[in-house]
């Protein structure tokens, strides 16, 4: 039992080191990472799959997308946490470290609205539009998150109809799911940005916002 615990801790430390190295130098190859961490290339690839990290070519593409597309899509720059990958209209991935300032006063548990903010901002970012707002959100928090844990949120565009995007976001800590939500993201038009009445439904005007009835917290 003790040997298994030590093995898990070693794997956890390796994952932390891998994330730190890629945060500092995103364009390291699997071969370079394997050499620096003293493991096989296959181990690095398995670790990347576990952590949801894209390969080097995708990381390079994402850096270029953020550098060239930040002005065209401001939501890419407003993601809560670190945006690791984003393909507008398809999906994306973000990472956030649960810090002490996010926790409840007397407990080591992260407040739910931080998980929601990470997921919601990623859902808005993956919509293939320059400006958007959240129309509705239905979310669930299966288990609490502890200070120091790393949250990996993965967004997937399920459907697009006109100005409306249905986006699913699942957040995990290692292999465990800690958040799941479905967001209705609505693209804004020029008249919306000019301050005119917003027509989210296409039938008259309305100002839809998230309501407490549509958000389930733990």
How would you describe what is shown here?
The protein has 218 residues and is α+β, with helices and mostly antiparallel strands. The protein folds into two domains: 2-51, Orthogonal Bundle (Arc Repressor Mutant, subunit A); 80-214, Roll (Thiol Ester Dehydrase, Chain A). Helices cover 34% and strands 26% of the residues. It has six helices and six strands; from the N terminus they run H-H-H-H-E-E-H-E-E-E-E-H. It has helices spanning 2-24, 30-37, 41-51, 56-69, 112-126, 190-193, and strands at 82-87, 91-97, 132-140, 150-161, 164-173, 176-187. Strands 1-2-4-5-6-3 form a six-stranded antiparallel β-sheet. A hairpin with a 2-residue loop joins strand 5 (164-173) and strand 6. Residues 1-9 and 202-218 have low confidence and may be disordered.
The gist of it:
The chain is α+β, with helices and mostly antiparallel strands and 218 residues long. It contains six helices and six strands; from the N terminus they run H-H-H-H-E-E-H-E-E-E-E-H.
Strand order across the largest sheet: 1-2-4-5-6-3
Overall number of domains: 2
Q: What is the tally of helical segments?
A: 6
Q: What value does the Rg take, in angstroms?
A: 19 Å
The end-to-end span amounts to 33 Å
Features of the shown structure:
218 residues; alpha+beta; Arc Repressor Mutant, subunit A; Thiol Ester Dehydrase, Chain A; 6-stranded antiparallel sheet; 6 strands; 26% strand; disordered N terminus
List the helices and strands and how they pair.
Blueprint: H1 2-24, H2 30-37, H3 41-51, H4 56-69, E1 82-87, E2 91-97, H5 112-126, E3 132-140, E4 150-161, E5 164-173, E6 176-187, H6 190-193
Antiparallel strand pairs: 1-2, 2-4, 3-6, 4-5, 5-6
Helix pairs in contact: 2-3
């Amino acid at each position: 039992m003790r040997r298994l615990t030590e093995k898990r801790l070693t794997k956890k430390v390796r994952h932390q080191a891998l994330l730190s190295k890629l945060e500092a130098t995103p364009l390291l190859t699997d071969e370079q990472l394997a050499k620096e961490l003293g493991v096989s290339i296959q181990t690095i690839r398995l670790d990347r799959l576990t952590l949801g990290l894209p390969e080097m070519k995708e990381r390079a593409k994402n850096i270029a997308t953020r550098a060239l597309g930040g002005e065209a899509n401001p939501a890419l720059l407003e993601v809560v946490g670190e945006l690791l990958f984003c393909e507008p209209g398809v999906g994306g991935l973000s990472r956030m470290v649960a810090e002490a300032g996010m926790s409840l006063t007397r407990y080591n548990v992260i407040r739910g609205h931080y998980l929601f903010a990470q997921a919601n901002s990623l859902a808005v970012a993956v919509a293939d539009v320059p400006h958007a707002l959240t129309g509705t959100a239905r979310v669930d928090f299966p288990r609490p998150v502890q200070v120091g844990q790393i949250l990996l949120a993965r967004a997937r565009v399920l459907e697009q109809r006109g100005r409306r995007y249905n986006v699913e976001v699942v957040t995990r800590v290692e292999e465990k799911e800690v958040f799941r939500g479905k967001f209705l993201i609505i693209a804004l038009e020029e008249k919306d940005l000019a301050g005119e009445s917003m027509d989210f439904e296409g039938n008259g005007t309305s100002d839809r916002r998230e309501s407490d009835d549509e958000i389930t917290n733990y």
